[in-house]
Write a structure and sequence with these properties.
Layout (H helix, E strand, L loop, with lengths): L2 H4 L10 H26 L23 H11 L6
């Protein structure tokens, strides 16, 4: 028997499936994170003007808390007919 024919040569690392799982998982996460960052930067919404007057128009922009304040005031006052 020839000793070299019976000995099996070691498998190269790129042919082992588990290596690709170990490398591919974190690599996929990094690529997804970069893609998410690019989408977030390119698709950023513009900053809204929250001042009392909006731009060139003289229309008063209501405060975001106005409905909540009106509901609180309505609940706090007793209605004459109720």
């Amino acid at each position: 028997m020839n000793p070299s024919s019976s000995a099996k040569s070691p498998t190269p690392w790129w042919r082992v499936g588990m290596v690709w799982l170990v490398i591919g998982g974190p690599l996929a996460v990094v690529v997804a994170g970069i893609a998410t960052a690019v989408i977030a930067v390119r698709g950023a919404d513009p900053v809204l003007d929250t001042s009392a007057r909006s731009g060139r128009t003289s229309v008063v922009v209501p405060d975001a808390m106005t409905p909540a304040i009106q509901a609180r005031n309505h609940a706090a006052t007793a209605a004459a007919g109720d």
